[in-house]
Write a structure and sequence with these properties.
One of its GO terms (cellular component) is cytoplasm. Its cofactor is pyridoxal 5'-phosphate. This is Alpha-1,4 glucan phosphorylase. It catalyses: [(1->4)-alpha-D-glucosyl](n) + phosphate = [(1->4)-alpha-D-glucosyl](n-1) + alpha-D-glucose 1-phosphate. The protein has 821 residues and is an alpha/beta fold. It folds into two domains: 416 residues, 3-Layer(aba) Sandwich (Rossmann fold); 261 residues, 3-Layer(aba) Sandwich (Rossmann fold). 49% of the residues lie in helices and 16% in strands. The protein contains 33 helices and 24 strands. The radius of gyration is 27 Å and the shape is globular. Bound molecules: ligand 26Y. The site of ligand 26Y has 17 residues, from α6.
């Protein structure tokens, strides 16, 4: 670098060092000698936060000044992870900050590790919201995320005797340096009560809702910097608070606990992410959460619109509201309530504004995840909103009942009310009707939406369903997770890689270049060493970094078929024992993921993975050729460690069931080869990386449907496959659970007689695909060629591309790609 530049960097480092020292002293209140790593973390976070705030205030000012249309992303989940490295990366301060800390004898990597993950999400849907927030800022879209500030995010998972135990997560216990409390922004949220009819001055009638109970929503803002810090958006999370802190009379009369009852009840709304909803009390709490944050967000954005533009009727010109699944769909009824009841807008006009403002993303076709709420619960908790939903439904059904094909069957399918098992409100239907666009998250998923759950609704609104294939932010999932690979790639494509991911295509020209292959492979090797150290620390299992790292990390669910993977491990285990001296390929199967606390089968699958690992890892006959490890407490920051060290990415869901997947993209970008079904975005990944560079196997979505209609008994498939029957037999007979031989009898019986996820039907195809993986692995130049081509062709899966599509085709807002400063 030229001397002037070096000197400028030197000055930057000194200034950052002084700022960190000032923060440590005056904001943390610690001296250099007394400071813990956490103190240094806070001081460093606060110093980068200063730069973020500088740019944040000008972003807000400029959006105001230019009258920009705003995008509101409503999501019950934001699975953010850690923010220190992310903020430093996007503010382009990471090298200088690392150097400044080094001068103080502090290691940035140590500080990275002390930050708690913000785990305000369950899985893919929540992580997508976090990637989208980052890309919206990167593209200078004036966007707000709205959600709930859960006191406790996704539970902490521990594994004891192979079993999952859930513990409360407590991310706020050491404070949160990234957020700003906004005590002046408080929205009243009503529940229950009754409705009066009033006559307006103009003689029209007006419905007035008098809630029986009110809680307050308190705003907390977190700035979200885009790449190069050019634009900063706001994530506004709501915390629930009681109107009165306690009942003083009751407290003074000696009932100290009773005096706090109302407060506990109110504050329970933002207490935990996804409270168990297997009980009626749990279901009610979940609905209260949904309305709480939808209402607060709508009140807040309508207030902002009116203060800027004076007239709520122009809302749709200046605001686009995206519903992340149906969880916030009650916002549609809430906007109608605000427009019709509070602003006296005529119904039809209010409905037009609502439809023009809202759009809805669907993330799953699984029937158990399609939200419906019992009508009696809605009537009790949200009486006015239930009335509004009935009116929306009546007008909607009146429109279609005139059509020639309006049979009772069709009207029942179109209705907002499902009458088939008690009366329930279909939130997907409400979201569909109240939106101008509805999208799926991969091409296959969007196509399936039109033929399955939304078939009838699509027929009365052709063209409303569109596709927006998911993406991931390359800042986090390439640069922050895999800095060494990012540097290598930048040498080839230039340092605008994170501005325009499509430049990655240039890397394809080097796929066969042996010296490039060597450097690419060396980076993988180093990442595997790092992961091996972490595995050793966390679970005490020693891994061979030259083994093939075969990785299956995601929520544990039957449709994701971790069992299929475990069965292959068991089959290979038996083979190695039978023929120990064939030239086996050393392999490590890595699993991680959480099971919902109430999902018994998923928890049994975790136990099976652990039990199988225990036997295999300690069998000397294997001489380390096969290891099976289950890493506890999977979260965003663990994913950032595992993905860059993966050779093989397991994406093996039953075709038609995984809406998209986004982990699949993170792996392929980092150069893992995928073994997968033609499901979700795997289909598009195959189209981009080329079918020779991905291992596709198994039934297609159409074949799954056909097969299921013939029955889901697994006996034939098992009888046809000696390897499968042997593996099932050893699991069922207790080879892996000697302390309780029948532990997996039920699981194996289910696969044998009622194999809904078609594990047995796909086993041989999967087994053979794994052998094709081995053949490629043996041919190292061919393996690395495929890996490099995966990286090279993944640019399209940047969430910048996804967000640009939403901006143009759904939100009607301009985007400004980031540029070099
Ligand atoms: C209402 C409750 C039962 C519920 C809570 C959370 C239902 C669904 C969810 C979460 C769903 C989810 O994470 N879906 C995933 O969304 C990703 C982002 O689009 C997809 O990539 C992934 O395939 C899909 O399973």
């Amino acid at each position: 670098a030229p001397a002037a530049e070096t000197q400028a960097i030197g000055e930057d480092v000194a200034a950052i060092r002084d700022l960190i020292l000032a923060k440590l002293k005056y904001s943390v209140g610690k001296s250099v000698t007394a400071a813990s790593p956490h103190d240094w973390f806070v001081a460093t976070a606060l110093s980068v936060r200063d730069k973020v705030v500088e740019s944040w205030l000008s972003s807000i000012e400029s959006s105001k000044r230019t009258g920009r249309k705003r995008v509101y992303y409503l999501s019950l989940e934001f699975l953010i992870g850690r923010l220190l490295i992310d903020a430093l990366t996007n503010m382009e301060m990471i090298d200088e900050t690392r150097a400044a800390l080094a001068e103080l004898g502090v290691d940035l990597e140590t500080l990275r590790e002390v930050e708690d993950d913000a785990a305000l999400g369950n899985g893919g849907l929540g992580r997508l919201a976090a990637c989208f927030m980052e890309s919206m800022a990167t593209l200078s879209i004036a966007a707000y995320g709205y959600g709930i500030r859960y006191d406790h995010g996704l539970f902490r998972q521990r594994i004891k005797n192979g079993r999952q135990l859930e513990y409360p997560e407590d991310w706020l216990s050491f404070g949160n340096p990234w957020e700003f409390q906004r005590p002046e922004i408080v929205c009243p949220i009503g529940f229950g009560g009754h409705i009066d009819t009033e006559t307006r001055p103009d003689g029209e009638l007006r419905q007035v809702w008098h809630p029986g109970e009110t809680v307050e929503a308190l705003a907390y803002d977190t700035p979200i910097p885009g790449w190069r810090g050019a634009h900063i958006n706001t994530l506004r999370l709501w915390s629930a608070r009681a109107v009165d802190p306690l009942r003083l009379d009751q407290f003074n009369s000696g009932d100290h606990i009773g005096a706090l009852m109302d407060r506990v009840r109110a504050e329970s709304i933002s207490k935990v992410l996804y409270p168990g909803d297997t009980t009626p009390a749990g279901q009610e709490l979940r609905l209260r959460q949904e309305f709480f944050f939808a209402s607060a967000s709508l009140q807040d954005l309508v207030r902002r619109h009116i203060s800027l533009y004076g007239d709520v009727r122009t809302l749709a010109d200046k605001a686009a509201i995206q519903l992340n699944d149906t969880h916030p769909a009650i916002a549609i009824a809430e906007l109608m309530h605000i427009l019709v009841d509070l602003h006296d807008i005529p119904w039809d006009e209010a409905w037009a504004i609502t439809q023009a403002t809202f759009s809805y993303t669907n993330h799953t076709l699984l029937p158990e995840a399609l939200e419906t709420w019992p009508v009696p619960l809605m009537e009790r908790l949200l009486p006015r909103h239930m009335q509004i939903i009935y009116l929306i439904n009546a007008l909607h059904l009146a429109k279609v009942s005139g059509e020639p094909d309006a049979t009772g069957h069709r009207l029942a399918a179109l209705s907002l009310i499902d009458e088939s098992h008690g009366r329930r409100v279909r939130m997907g239907h409400l979201a569909f009707l109240g939106s101008h666009k509805v999208n799926g998250v991969s091409q296959l998923h969007s196509d399936l939406m039109k033929t399955t759950v939304f078939h009838d609704l699509e027929s009365i609104a052709p063209g409303k369903i569109t596709n927006k294939t998911n993406g991931i932010t390359f800042r986090r999932w390439l640069k922050e997770a895999n800095p060494a690979l990012t540097s290598l790639l930048m040498e080839v494509v230039g340092d605008n890689l994170l501005d325009n991911a499509m430049v990655l295509e240039k890397v394809a020209a080097l796929a066969d270049d042996s010296s490039f292959q060597e450097r690419y492979a060396a980076i993988r090797r180093a990442n595997k060493m790092t992961l091996a150290r972490l595995v050793q620390q966390r679970i005490g299992v020693k891994l061979n970094p030259d083994a093939l790292f075969d990785v299956h990390i995601k929520r544990i669910h039957e449709y994701k078929r971790q069992v299929l993977n475990i069965l292959e491990a068991v089959a290979i285990y038996e083979e190695i024992r039978a023929q120990p001296f064939r030239d086996w390929i050393p392999r490590v199967k890595i699993f991680a993921g959480k099971a919902a606390a109430s999902y018994t089968t998923a928890k049994l699958i975790i136990q099976l993975a652990n039990d199988v690992g225990k036997v295999i890892n300690s069998d000397p006959a294997l001489r380390g050729l096969l290891k099976v490890v289950f890493l506890p407490n999977y979260n965003v920051s663990l994913a950032e460690r595992i993905i860059p060290a993966a050779d093989l990415s397991e994406q093996i869901s039953t075709a038609g069931m995984e809406a998209s997947g986004t982990g699949n993209m993170k792996f392929a970008l980092n150069g893992a080869l995928t073994i997968g079904t033609l499901d979700g975005a795997n289909v598009e990944i195959m189209e981009h990386v080329g079918s020779p560079n991905i291992f596709i196997f198994g039934l297609t979505a159409d074949e799954v449907e056909a097969k299921r209609s013939q029955g889901i008994n697994g006996q034939d498939a098992i009888a046809r496959s000696p390897k499968l029957s042997e593996a099932l037999e050893s699991i069922a007979s207790g080879v892996f659970s000697p302390d309780e031989p029948h532990r997996y009898r039920g699981l194996v019986d289910a696969l044998t007689y009622h194999d809904f996820f078609l594990v047995t039907a796909d086993f041989d195809a999967y087994y053979n695909a794994q052998r094709a993986v081995f053949r490629r692995w043996r041919d190292k130049p061919a393996w690395w060629r495929s890996a490099i081509l995966n990286t090279a062709h993944m640019g399209w899966f940047s969430s910048d591309r996804t967000i640009a599509e939403y901006a143009e085709e759904i939100w009607n807002v301009p985007v400004t790609p980031p540029g070099r400063k």
